Amino acid sequence: MVVKPVSELAEVTIRSMASNGSGVGKLPDGRVVFVPRTAPGDLVRVRVSAVKRRWANGHVDEVLQPSEGRTDPPCPLYERCGGCSLQHLPYTEQLKWKGRFVVDALSRIGRLEVDEVAVTASPKPLRYRNKITFTLKRLSGGRVVAGFHHLRRSNYVVDIKDECILPEPELSSAWTSLRENWGANAARLPAGGRLRLTLRNSKSGVYLFVQGGRSPWNAENLVNRVPSVSTVWHHPSDSEEIELVHGRPHEDVWGGNRVMLIGDAFLQVNRGAAQLLEEYVKVRAGFPDTAIDAYCGIGQYGRTLANLGTRVVGIDVSAAALASPFVRDDENYQTVQGTVEEHISDYLPTDLLVLNPPRSGLEHSVPVQILAAPPKRVIYISCDAATLARDLYRLAPVYSLVEHRAFDFFPQTAHIETVMILKRSGN
Length: 427
Hints:
The protein is about 20% helix and about 35% strand. With about 425 residues, the chain is an alpha/beta fold. The strands form 4 sheets. An 8-stranded mixed β-sheet has the order 7-22-23-21-20-17-18-19, sandwiched between helices. The chain has a 7-stranded mixed β-sheet with strand order 10-9-8-11-12-13-14, with helices on one face. Helix 1 runs parallel beside helix 9. The chain is globular.
Protein backbone atom coordinates (compact mmCIF):
# COMPACT_ATOMS: atom_id res chain seq x y z
CA MET A 1 0.00 0.00 0.00
CA VAL A 2 1.29 3.47 -0.88
CA VAL A 3 2.28 5.65 2.07
CA LYS A 4 0.54 9.01 1.85
CA PRO A 5 2.66 11.97 2.98
CA VAL A 6 0.73 14.39 5.17
CA SER A 7 1.47 17.19 7.60
CA GLU A 8 -1.30 17.45 10.18
CA LEU A 9 -1.16 18.01 13.92
CA ALA A 10 -2.82 15.83 16.56
CA GLU A 11 -2.66 15.47 20.33
CA VAL A 12 -1.63 11.94 21.28
CA THR A 13 -1.04 10.10 24.55
CA ILE A 14 1.79 7.61 24.22
CA ARG A 15 0.72 4.23 25.60
CA SER A 16 3.59 1.89 24.77
CA MET A 17 6.84 1.50 22.83
CA ALA A 18 7.72 -0.29 19.60
CA SER A 19 10.84 -2.41 19.28
CA ASN A 20 12.62 0.33 17.31
CA GLY A 21 12.28 2.71 20.27
CA SER A 22 9.37 4.77 18.93
CA GLY A 23 6.49 5.60 21.22
CA VAL A 24 3.10 4.17 20.26
CA GLY A 25 -0.21 5.98 20.56
CA LYS A 26 -3.48 6.45 18.69
CA LEU A 27 -4.66 9.28 16.48
CA PRO A 28 -8.21 10.64 16.91
CA ASP A 29 -9.33 8.53 13.92
CA GLY A 30 -8.15 5.33 15.64
CA ARG A 31 -4.98 4.76 13.64
CA VAL A 32 -1.90 3.64 15.55
CA VAL A 33 0.87 6.23 15.29
CA PHE A 34 4.59 5.67 15.88
CA VAL A 35 6.43 8.68 17.30
CA PRO A 36 10.21 8.66 17.91
CA ARG A 37 11.60 10.34 21.02
CA THR A 38 8.46 9.83 23.10
CA ALA A 39 7.93 7.91 26.34
CA PRO A 40 4.89 6.00 27.62
CA GLY A 41 2.67 8.46 29.45
CA ASP A 42 3.74 11.49 27.40
CA LEU A 43 1.03 13.77 26.07
CA VAL A 44 2.46 15.18 22.85
CA ARG A 45 1.43 17.22 19.87
CA VAL A 46 2.39 15.06 16.91
CA ARG A 47 2.99 16.16 13.35
CA VAL A 48 1.80 13.23 11.25
CA SER A 49 4.25 12.64 8.40
CA ALA A 50 2.97 9.52 6.64
CA VAL A 51 -0.27 7.52 6.78
CA LYS A 52 -1.26 3.99 5.85
CA ARG A 53 -4.65 2.38 6.27
CA ARG A 54 -4.14 1.27 9.87
CA TRP A 55 -1.11 3.16 11.09
CA ALA A 56 0.90 6.32 10.68
CA ASN A 57 4.31 7.81 11.40
CA GLY A 58 4.84 11.14 13.06
CA HIS A 59 7.30 13.25 15.00
CA VAL A 60 7.03 15.42 18.08
CA ASP A 61 5.94 18.98 17.50
CA GLU A 62 5.71 19.69 21.23
CA VAL A 63 5.72 17.72 24.48
CA LEU A 64 2.58 19.03 26.16
CA GLN A 65 2.88 16.98 29.35
CA PRO A 66 5.93 14.79 29.95
CA SER A 67 5.50 11.47 31.71
CA GLU A 68 7.29 10.55 34.92
CA GLY A 69 9.27 8.03 32.88
CA ARG A 70 10.99 10.69 30.83
CA THR A 71 14.33 12.44 31.31
CA ASP A 72 16.32 15.15 29.58
CA PRO A 73 18.60 13.57 26.94
CA PRO A 74 22.30 14.15 27.72
CA CYS A 75 23.27 14.81 24.08
CA PRO A 76 22.57 18.27 22.60
CA LEU A 77 22.09 16.75 19.12
CA TYR A 78 19.58 14.09 20.18
CA GLU A 79 16.50 15.67 18.63
CA ARG A 80 18.16 15.67 15.19
CA CYS A 81 20.72 12.86 15.20
CA GLY A 82 19.65 9.34 14.28
CA GLY A 83 22.45 7.62 16.18
CA CYS A 84 20.45 7.05 19.39
CA SER A 85 16.78 6.39 20.09
CA LEU A 86 16.32 6.06 23.88
CA GLN A 87 18.25 8.90 25.50
CA HIS A 88 14.95 10.42 26.65
CA LEU A 89 14.42 7.44 28.99
CA PRO A 90 16.29 6.89 32.27
CA TYR A 91 18.63 3.93 31.92
CA THR A 92 16.55 1.69 34.18
CA GLU A 93 13.54 2.37 31.94
CA GLN A 94 15.59 1.55 28.84
CA LEU A 95 16.43 -1.86 30.30
CA LYS A 96 12.82 -2.54 31.25
CA TRP A 97 11.53 -1.79 27.76
CA LYS A 98 14.27 -3.75 26.04
CA GLY A 99 13.28 -6.81 28.03
CA ARG A 100 9.68 -6.26 26.92
CA PHE A 101 10.77 -5.98 23.28
CA VAL A 102 12.27 -9.48 23.54
CA VAL A 103 9.24 -10.93 25.35
CA ASP A 104 6.93 -9.49 22.70
CA ALA A 105 8.96 -10.98 19.83
CA LEU A 106 9.12 -14.40 21.50
CA SER A 107 5.35 -14.39 22.04
CA ARG A 108 4.22 -12.85 18.76
CA ILE A 109 6.68 -14.52 16.38
CA GLY A 110 8.13 -17.47 18.29
CA ARG A 111 4.81 -18.47 19.94
CA LEU A 112 6.63 -18.95 23.22
CA GLU A 113 5.16 -18.16 26.62
CA VAL A 114 7.82 -16.11 28.39
CA ASP A 115 6.75 -13.79 31.18
CA GLU A 116 9.96 -11.83 31.51
CA VAL A 117 13.47 -11.64 30.05
CA ALA A 118 16.05 -10.30 32.48
CA VAL A 119 18.43 -7.73 31.01
CA THR A 120 22.01 -7.39 32.24
CA ALA A 121 22.99 -3.73 32.25
CA SER A 122 26.02 -2.44 30.44
CA PRO A 123 28.86 -1.57 32.84
CA LYS A 124 28.90 1.83 31.13
CA PRO A 125 25.67 3.39 29.82
CA LEU A 126 27.72 6.15 28.15
CA ARG A 127 31.20 6.21 26.56
CA TYR A 128 31.04 2.46 25.98
CA ARG A 129 31.75 2.12 22.24
CA ASN A 130 35.26 0.98 21.23
CA LYS A 131 34.32 1.61 17.60
CA ILE A 132 32.47 4.48 15.95
CA THR A 133 31.64 5.11 12.28
CA PHE A 134 30.79 8.52 10.86
CA THR A 135 29.77 9.55 7.36
CA LEU A 136 31.71 12.42 5.77
CA LYS A 137 30.17 14.44 2.93
CA ARG A 138 31.90 17.11 0.89
CA LEU A 139 29.42 19.81 0.00
CA SER A 140 29.53 22.68 -2.45
CA GLY A 141 31.70 25.64 -1.57
CA GLY A 142 34.32 23.50 0.14
CA ARG A 143 32.15 22.76 3.17
CA VAL A 144 32.47 19.40 4.92
CA VAL A 145 30.04 17.71 7.30
CA ALA A 146 30.79 14.49 9.17
CA GLY A 147 28.65 12.61 11.65
CA PHE A 148 25.55 10.42 11.88
CA HIS A 149 22.54 10.52 9.59
CA HIS A 150 19.62 12.77 10.48
CA LEU A 151 16.69 11.28 12.40
CA ARG A 152 14.09 12.16 9.76
CA ARG A 153 16.14 13.01 6.66
CA SER A 154 18.44 10.07 5.98
CA ASN A 155 20.33 11.85 3.18
CA TYR A 156 21.30 14.62 5.58
CA VAL A 157 24.35 14.22 7.84
CA VAL A 158 24.30 15.81 11.30
CA ASP A 159 27.71 17.39 11.81
CA ILE A 160 29.32 16.00 14.98
CA LYS A 161 32.35 17.69 16.47
CA ASP A 162 32.80 16.56 20.07
CA GLU A 163 29.16 16.16 21.13
CA CYS A 164 28.72 12.38 20.77
CA ILE A 165 28.57 10.62 24.15
CA LEU A 166 28.81 7.01 22.92
CA PRO A 167 32.50 6.51 21.97
CA GLU A 168 35.21 5.81 24.50
CA PRO A 169 37.20 8.94 25.48
CA GLU A 170 40.19 7.90 23.36
CA LEU A 171 37.98 7.81 20.26
CA SER A 172 36.41 11.18 21.03
CA SER A 173 39.84 12.72 21.39
CA ALA A 174 41.03 11.14 18.13
CA TRP A 175 37.89 12.32 16.29
CA THR A 176 38.37 15.90 17.47
CA SER A 177 42.00 15.81 16.37
CA LEU A 178 41.08 14.35 12.96
CA ARG A 179 38.55 17.10 12.35
CA GLU A 180 41.02 19.79 13.33
CA ASN A 181 43.72 18.45 11.03
CA TRP A 182 42.11 17.03 7.88
CA GLY A 183 42.42 20.43 6.25
CA ALA A 184 40.20 22.59 4.06
CA ASN A 185 37.60 20.45 2.26
CA ALA A 186 39.13 17.47 4.14
CA ALA A 187 41.91 17.53 1.55
CA ARG A 188 44.14 15.24 3.64
CA LEU A 189 41.57 12.45 3.30
CA PRO A 190 40.99 10.48 0.06
CA ALA A 191 39.25 12.35 -2.75
CA GLY A 192 35.53 11.62 -3.14
CA GLY A 193 32.16 13.09 -2.33
CA ARG A 194 31.29 10.65 0.49
CA LEU A 195 33.51 8.67 2.87
CA ARG A 196 32.88 6.39 5.84
CA LEU A 197 35.34 6.97 8.65
CA THR A 198 35.67 4.32 11.37
CA LEU A 199 37.75 4.75 14.50
CA ARG A 200 38.46 1.73 16.70
CA ASN A 201 40.12 1.65 20.10
CA SER A 202 42.14 -1.47 20.90
CA LYS A 203 44.83 -2.59 23.32
CA SER A 204 47.33 -1.21 20.77
CA GLY A 205 45.74 2.22 20.51
CA VAL A 206 43.39 3.91 18.01
CA TYR A 207 43.25 3.13 14.31
CA LEU A 208 41.36 4.67 11.40
CA PHE A 209 39.57 2.77 8.63
CA VAL A 210 38.50 4.85 5.62
CA GLN A 211 35.93 3.45 3.18
CA GLY A 212 35.44 5.15 -0.16
CA GLY A 213 37.41 7.68 -2.11
CA ARG A 214 40.17 7.05 -4.57
CA SER A 215 43.58 5.47 -4.29
CA PRO A 216 46.49 6.16 -4.03
CA TRP A 217 46.24 8.28 -0.92
CA ASN A 218 49.13 9.66 1.11
CA ALA A 219 47.91 9.11 4.65
CA GLU A 220 51.14 10.46 6.14
CA ASN A 221 50.00 14.05 5.51
CA LEU A 222 47.13 13.45 7.92
CA VAL A 223 48.54 11.03 10.46
CA ASN A 224 51.67 13.10 11.12
CA ARG A 225 49.29 15.73 12.50
CA VAL A 226 47.17 13.25 14.49
CA PRO A 227 49.55 11.25 16.73
CA SER A 228 46.65 9.57 18.56
CA VAL A 229 45.94 7.53 15.38
CA SER A 230 48.73 5.00 14.91
CA THR A 231 47.40 2.87 12.02
CA VAL A 232 45.32 3.63 8.92
CA TRP A 233 43.46 1.25 6.61
CA HIS A 234 41.81 2.26 3.33
CA HIS A 235 39.17 0.49 1.24
CA PRO A 236 39.01 2.53 -2.00
CA SER A 237 35.69 2.70 -3.82
CA ASP A 238 37.34 1.37 -6.99
CA SER A 239 38.86 -1.74 -5.38
CA GLU A 240 37.82 -4.84 -3.47
CA GLU A 241 41.08 -4.83 -1.51
CA ILE A 242 41.66 -3.25 1.89
CA GLU A 243 45.01 -1.46 2.00
CA LEU A 244 47.21 -0.86 5.03
CA VAL A 245 48.42 2.67 4.25
CA HIS A 246 50.08 3.59 7.55
CA GLY A 247 51.43 1.77 10.59
CA ARG A 248 51.00 -1.87 11.58
CA PRO A 249 47.93 -4.01 12.30
CA HIS A 250 46.74 -3.63 15.87
CA GLU A 251 46.59 -6.45 18.38
CA ASP A 252 43.81 -6.98 20.87
CA VAL A 253 42.69 -9.63 23.37
CA TRP A 254 39.18 -11.13 23.30
CA GLY A 255 38.10 -14.15 25.28
CA GLY A 256 41.67 -14.59 26.44
CA ASN A 257 42.91 -14.92 22.85
CA ARG A 258 45.21 -12.53 20.99
CA VAL A 259 43.76 -11.30 17.72
CA MET A 260 45.01 -9.11 14.90
CA LEU A 261 42.63 -6.37 13.76
CA ILE A 262 42.47 -6.14 9.98
CA GLY A 263 40.47 -3.27 8.50
CA ASP A 264 36.89 -3.40 9.73
CA ALA A 265 37.21 -6.73 11.57
CA PHE A 266 34.01 -7.55 13.47
CA LEU A 267 34.26 -7.30 17.23
CA GLN A 268 31.63 -6.32 19.74
CA VAL A 269 31.63 -2.57 20.29
CA ASN A 270 30.95 -2.78 24.04
CA ARG A 271 33.87 -4.59 25.63
CA GLY A 272 32.49 -4.58 29.17
CA ALA A 273 29.09 -6.01 28.21
CA ALA A 274 30.73 -8.51 25.86
CA GLN A 275 32.85 -9.87 28.70
CA LEU A 276 29.72 -10.43 30.79
CA LEU A 277 28.12 -12.34 27.91
CA GLU A 278 31.27 -14.41 27.35
CA GLU A 279 31.23 -15.50 30.99
CA TYR A 280 27.53 -16.34 30.80
CA VAL A 281 28.05 -18.49 27.70
CA LYS A 282 31.08 -20.23 29.20
CA VAL A 283 29.18 -21.21 32.35
CA ARG A 284 26.09 -22.41 30.45
CA ALA A 285 28.19 -24.34 27.94
CA GLY A 286 29.65 -26.58 30.63
CA PHE A 287 32.28 -29.06 29.44
CA PRO A 288 31.02 -30.71 26.24
CA ASP A 289 33.32 -33.10 24.41
CA THR A 290 32.50 -31.56 21.02
CA ALA A 291 31.01 -28.29 19.81
CA ILE A 292 30.31 -26.29 16.67
CA ASP A 293 30.95 -22.54 16.78
CA ALA A 294 28.72 -21.35 13.91
CA TYR A 295 29.20 -17.82 12.56
CA CYS A 296 32.29 -17.87 14.75
CA GLY A 297 34.11 -14.73 13.55
CA ILE A 298 37.33 -14.55 15.54
CA GLY A 299 36.14 -17.46 17.70
CA GLN A 300 35.17 -15.42 20.72
CA TYR A 301 33.06 -18.22 22.24
CA GLY A 302 34.43 -21.38 20.65
CA ARG A 303 38.06 -20.70 21.50
CA THR A 304 37.12 -20.25 25.14
CA LEU A 305 35.59 -23.74 25.07
CA ALA A 306 38.61 -25.13 23.23
CA ASN A 307 40.91 -23.75 25.92
CA LEU A 308 38.89 -25.80 28.42
CA GLY A 309 39.34 -29.03 26.44
CA THR A 310 36.33 -29.12 24.08
CA ARG A 311 37.00 -30.11 20.46
CA VAL A 312 35.47 -27.23 18.49
CA VAL A 313 34.83 -26.58 14.80
CA GLY A 314 34.43 -22.89 13.95
CA ILE A 315 32.58 -21.97 10.75
CA ASP A 316 32.56 -18.50 9.21
CA VAL A 317 32.35 -17.01 5.73
CA SER A 318 34.95 -14.31 6.44
CA ALA A 319 38.53 -15.30 5.71
CA ALA A 320 39.74 -12.12 7.42
CA ALA A 321 37.90 -12.97 10.64
CA LEU A 322 39.24 -16.52 10.68
CA ALA A 323 42.76 -15.23 10.06
CA SER A 324 42.61 -12.66 12.87
CA PRO A 325 43.61 -14.91 15.81
CA PHE A 326 47.37 -15.38 16.09
CA VAL A 327 46.79 -19.12 16.51
CA ARG A 328 44.22 -19.95 13.83
CA ASP A 329 43.93 -23.71 14.36
CA ASP A 330 45.22 -25.85 17.20
CA GLU A 331 44.57 -29.28 18.64
CA ASN A 332 41.09 -28.38 19.88
CA TYR A 333 39.96 -25.64 17.48
CA GLN A 334 39.52 -26.23 13.76
CA THR A 335 38.27 -23.50 11.41
CA VAL A 336 36.25 -23.92 8.22
CA GLN A 337 35.79 -21.03 5.80
CA GLY A 338 32.41 -20.86 4.09
CA THR A 339 28.76 -20.36 4.88
CA VAL A 340 27.17 -22.21 7.78
CA GLU A 341 24.49 -23.62 5.47
CA GLU A 342 27.20 -25.18 3.29
CA HIS A 343 29.19 -26.85 6.06
CA ILE A 344 27.21 -27.39 9.26
CA SER A 345 25.84 -30.82 8.30
CA ASP A 346 29.41 -32.11 7.90
CA TYR A 347 29.95 -31.76 11.65
CA LEU A 348 26.54 -32.66 13.06
CA PRO A 349 25.54 -34.11 15.44
CA THR A 350 27.58 -32.60 18.25
CA ASP A 351 27.23 -32.08 21.98
CA LEU A 352 26.85 -28.30 21.75
CA LEU A 353 26.01 -25.90 18.95
CA VAL A 354 26.77 -22.21 19.44
CA LEU A 355 24.89 -19.98 16.99
CA ASN A 356 25.78 -16.30 16.64
CA PRO A 357 24.32 -15.27 13.26
CA PRO A 358 24.08 -11.77 11.79
CA ARG A 359 20.96 -9.67 12.25
CA SER A 360 19.17 -11.59 9.47
CA GLY A 361 19.28 -14.79 11.54
CA LEU A 362 19.68 -18.33 10.24
CA GLU A 363 19.53 -19.04 6.52
CA HIS A 364 16.34 -21.08 5.94
CA SER A 365 18.12 -24.42 5.40
CA VAL A 366 20.14 -24.24 8.63
CA PRO A 367 17.28 -25.15 11.03
CA VAL A 368 16.37 -28.05 8.72
CA GLN A 369 19.92 -29.40 8.92
CA ILE A 370 20.00 -28.95 12.69
CA LEU A 371 16.74 -30.86 13.15
CA ALA A 372 18.02 -33.69 10.94
CA ALA A 373 20.94 -34.35 13.31
CA PRO A 374 20.17 -32.36 16.45
CA PRO A 375 22.91 -31.45 18.94
CA LYS A 376 22.18 -32.10 22.59
CA ARG A 377 22.13 -28.39 23.39
CA VAL A 378 22.08 -25.09 21.50
CA ILE A 379 23.23 -21.68 22.68
CA TYR A 380 21.73 -19.08 20.34
CA ILE A 381 23.14 -15.54 20.59
CA SER A 382 21.22 -12.90 18.66
CA CYS A 383 21.24 -9.15 18.05
CA ASP A 384 17.71 -9.18 16.60
CA ALA A 385 14.81 -10.44 18.69
CA ALA A 386 12.47 -10.86 15.70
CA THR A 387 14.72 -13.15 13.66
CA LEU A 388 15.70 -14.98 16.85
CA ALA A 389 12.03 -15.69 17.61
CA ARG A 390 11.44 -16.85 14.03
CA ASP A 391 14.35 -19.30 14.26
CA LEU A 392 13.29 -20.61 17.67
CA TYR A 393 9.88 -21.41 16.20
CA ARG A 394 11.60 -23.37 13.42
CA LEU A 395 13.62 -25.34 15.98
CA ALA A 396 10.65 -25.97 18.30
CA PRO A 397 9.84 -29.50 17.00
CA VAL A 398 13.01 -30.80 18.68
CA TYR A 399 14.12 -28.17 21.19
CA SER A 400 12.80 -26.70 24.43
CA LEU A 401 13.77 -23.28 25.73
CA VAL A 402 15.29 -23.78 29.18
CA GLU A 403 16.96 -20.45 29.94
CA HIS A 404 17.23 -16.96 28.50
CA ARG A 405 18.88 -13.65 29.20
CA ALA A 406 19.51 -10.34 27.45
CA PHE A 407 22.61 -8.15 27.60
CA ASP A 408 22.58 -4.45 26.90
CA PHE A 409 25.39 -4.01 24.40
CA PHE A 410 23.94 -0.77 23.01
CA PRO A 411 22.75 1.66 25.71
CA GLN A 412 20.78 4.69 24.48
CA THR A 413 19.52 2.67 21.49
CA ALA A 414 16.73 0.11 21.09
CA HIS A 415 19.12 -2.70 20.11
CA ILE A 416 19.57 -5.63 22.51
CA GLU A 417 21.70 -8.79 22.55
CA THR A 418 19.85 -11.92 23.63
CA VAL A 419 20.96 -15.45 24.57
CA MET A 420 18.70 -18.50 24.45
CA ILE A 421 19.66 -21.88 25.91
CA LEU A 422 17.92 -24.77 24.15
CA LYS A 423 17.82 -28.42 25.16
CA ARG A 424 16.99 -31.30 22.86
CA SER A 425 13.68 -32.90 23.80
CA GLY A 426 13.47 -36.64 24.44
CA ASN A 427 16.27 -38.86 23.14
